[in-house]
Amino acid sequence: MQIPLPKVIRRILLKTKFWQENYLIIKLFQPLQGIATIAILLTLIGAFLEATGIGLVAFLLQCLTNTNQPPLQTGIGWLDIWFLGTKATVAERIYRISGLILINVWARAIFTYLGRYCAKYCEVSLIDSLRKRIFEQFQHLSLSYYTQKRSGELFHTFSTEVSEISYAFNEVINFVSKSCIILAYTIAMFVISWQLTLATVILFSLLAAGASNLIRRVRAASVEMTTAASELASTAIEFVGGVRTVQAFWTQDFERRRFYKVAGQVVKAWMKTNSISGVVQPLIEAIATTILIAMILVAVTTLVASGRLHVVLLLAFLFALFRLLPIIAHMNSSWGLIATYYGSMRNVHELLRTDNKTYLQDGEIEFSGLKRSLEFICVDFSYDDRKLVLEDITLTIERNQMVALVGASGSGKTTLADLLMRFYDPTAGKILVDGMDLRQFQLKSLRSRMAVVSQDTFIFNTTVHNNIAYGLEGVDDAVIEKAAIQANALEFILELPQGFNTKLGDRGVRLSGGQRQRIAIARALLRNPEILILDEATSALDSVSERLIQDSLEKLAVGRTVIAIAHRLSTIFRADKIIVLEQGHIVEQGGYQELLQQRGKFWQYHQMQYQLGEISPN
């Protein structure tokens, strides 16, 4: 249920700085407008009952302290007679008013609980929507975005800072609910004495204006705090991810010093923020108490002494004011806490923005399979407008061909394969699939007919079975076992404690490099792809396993288009075409023996590996 805001209020909100800085977060709140309105209405009812309670207390005090005087009245005949018992005895009035106070207290408790429950539902739903929206954002961003960001910072925003927005939302609800209570109390106080109420409102308004300066300083400090916290999360995650390297190089002391330095910056930022936000509540309480004492003195010396205000009504007014003081202090504290979460809100909003990020545009045509060839036509590519990684690449890969990419590290081999997978789009030129631009095809249909086995194999923290069948549902166990056999992985899988049901840990820490590679190969084989990309897929295998895998891959290459990025030339003897890359350019292409006879760059690579004993002379 959505309740539209009046146009005037909407225009005002759209022009506020808060809206401009957080509109993407606020928009996610729109589906919750209905339940939020209910929460506010319940809070208003609770506030009304709170104010009504003040009046009942005043009537009770009058009954207890001035038994000989006529009872106080509201001026509403039936209410005075039936509920307040103005025509009854003093004892009966005390019983009636005491009963009304009990009913009031329990009703207020029920409405307050329901209001808080609805507010909590809004809070949890908003956080759920935020996390889902951010996760969807992560899924659709291009790889170039992730190469520019630290994973720790993204994770910190996704988990910690989104949670902090829930705390901020909770404080906003508290702020609104307390505002409703203050409004109700103010109305009740106005009925008792408009002069004292007017003076109170003016004094507390001046107090709020002074507190706003502190709040601005808290917001500025919160940005430093969230930046330091993100740096701390990144440092910790990097350590966990690289713990093998840390221990191998015995750099624990170096990492500890680095972590302590960042942790010190977090402590400093926290203390700076809280030294400002922490002063808000005690300062407000001290000033508010001073105002209260001043109000008592003024009321007693002027209004009560002159007979313009009954002492019982003064007590009721002071009771309301006493109840207001902690509420006002809590409101200002909430205001300060909201300001401390400003940095988190800014970071989450920045992550949700789409106007400053790169997305790969999906095509509209479903890819039904390769019919003729893949063509690279005058393709250039660079990361972030830097030096070209690939320049003027023109080549043709026929259907069912095995094409090998050879070259030194950094020559552009993997980038070429990434362009084919559409992880990136060319800076210039185009890639054609059966004569059609690659960008015209739907990514889902395109990638469902491709499989990649890279040198950087990612193993998920789940079972062997689920890792091989990743992304596929309802796959028969026999099919998975067959893929494991073809990848030469069955033997070591059966030696694991629970076989195919063994959990492999984060990034497959329980497996060797070669075992992880064979799991990845089995995963690719299970998909039965039309286009198979092998990015040094056998580089982590021992010689025996490499030969077995190579035999399997050669058999599986029949009827498939294979792009093999090769470090070991022994793996590409049977390639239909070899492309030699150097500094982003194609310098040679042809068959294996043809390139050897040319005695060019490929021949040099061949001679180096021959001297190392990795390959035969011919």
Question: What is the secondary structure topology, with strand pairs?
Answer:
Layout (H helix, E strand, L loop, with lengths): L6 H9 L1 H12 L4 H33 L11 H6 L7 H51 L2 H6 L2 H42 L1 H48 L1 H6 L3 H26 L2 H25 L6 H30 L1 H11 L20 E10 L5 E11 L3 E6 L5 H9 L6 E6 L2 E2 L5 H5 L2 E4 L10 H5 L8 H10 L3 H6 L17 H14 L4 E5 L7 H14 L4 E5 L11 E6 L2 E6 L1 H7 L2 H11 L7
Parallel strand pairs: 3-8, 3-9, 6-7, 7-8
Antiparallel strand pairs: 1-2, 1-4, 4-5, 9-10
Helix pairs in contact: 2-13, 3-5, 3-7, 3-12, 5-7, 7-8, 7-12, 7-13, 8-10, 8-11, 8-12, 8-13, 11-12, 17-19, 21-22
How would you characterize this protein structure?
- With 618 residues, the chain is an alpha/beta fold.
- Among the domains are: 7-352, Up-down Bundle (ABC transporter transmembrane region fold); 457-528, Rossmann fold.
- Helices cover 62% and strands 10% of the residues.
- It has a 6-stranded mixed β-sheet with strand order 6-7-8-3-9-10, with helices on both faces. A 4-stranded antiparallel β-sheet has the order 2-1-4-5, with helices on one face.
- Strand 9 and strand 10 form a beta hairpin.
- Helix 5 (90-140) runs antiparallel to helix 7 (151-192), helix 7 (151-192) runs antiparallel to helix 8 and helix 17 (477-486) packs across helix 19 (513-526).
- The longest helix has 51 residues, at 90-140.
- It is elongated, with a radius of gyration of 36 Å.
Number of strands: 10
CATH class of the domain at 7-352: Mainly Alpha
CA-atom Rg in angstroms: 36 Å
Give the helix/strand class. alpha/beta
Shape: elongated
Low-confidence stretches: 1-5
- Read across the widest sheet, the strand sequence of neighbours is 6-7-8-3-9-10
What's the CATH superfamily of the domain at 7-352, by name? ABC transporter type 1, transmembrane domain
Provide mean pLDDT, rounded. 78
Q: Counting H and I runs of at least 4 residues, what is the number of helices? A: 22
Distance between the terminal alpha carbons, to the nearest Å? 76 Å
Instruction: Please summarize the sheet with the most strands.
Output: 6 strands, mixed
CATH architecture verdict of the domain at 7-352: Up-down Bundle
